[in-house]
Amino acid sequence: MIYRLRIILDTKEDVLRDLEIKSLNTFEDLHFAIVNAFKFEGNEMASFYLSDSEWKQGEELTFESFGQEKVMKDQILSSIINENQKNFIYVYDFLKLWTFFIEVVETNDENKSSHYPQTIFSIGDIPKEAPEKLFIDDKNDEYLEDNFEEEDPYQFY
Questions:
Q1: Using one digit for the tens of pLDDT, what is the confidence trace for 23-47?
Q2: Considering its fold, how many domains does the chain have in total?
Q3: Is residue 156 part of a domain?
Q4: Which of 78-85's residues contact partners 24+ apart within 8 Å by CB, and which partners?
């Protein structure tokens, strides 16, 4: 079986690639397919994050092991992708934060004459610079401000 994935760069312009990859490939194979499809050099760290349909970041799959996390090369796509898990966030280069949204859009039978992974559709060119990211804290800022105003700033706990 193959997965058809839509990979969208988080930018204002339309920049996306559709890839097909075998279900028995690893997330490391997918990483290199994305690197090739978007013409990156491939020498930066990257991670996949499980995501829901609202694009909330979940569990991380790292390129290298730093402890107990799951590592891309050890994770077969079909062991994670299922009816309830079809969305992922991919971050390439943690200094520039190239961020992509990945969705499994279709599953098909493998075509014996095709070579996988393959890019089957492409729109847009990747910008020269990574899109700027704004980090918004989900916490209630009003609550934090009220708390600090009431407390003695010189009090140590």
A1: 999 999 999 999 999 999 989 999 9
A2: 1
A3: no
A4: 78/1, 78/23, 78/24, 80/27, 80/50, 81/3, 81/23, 85/50
Task: Report residue 134's pLDDT band, with 50, 70 and 90 as the boundaries.
Answer: low
Structure tokens at 49: 């994050």
Which range of residues forms the domain containing residue 12? Answer: 2-150
Q: Distance of alpha carbon 44 from its chain centroid, rounded?
A: 14
In-domain check, residue 136: yes
Residue 155 lies in a domain: no
CA-to-CA distance for 35 and 43, rounded, in angstroms? 9
Q: Domain containing 93 — which CATH number?
A: 3.10.290.30
From residue 6, give the alpha-carbon distance in Å to each of 101, 139, 154.
8, 32, 53
**Lookup: tokens for 91:** 């971050």
Burial of 96 (0-12, 13-18, 19+ CB in 10 A): middle
Let me know if residue 69 belongs to a domain: yes
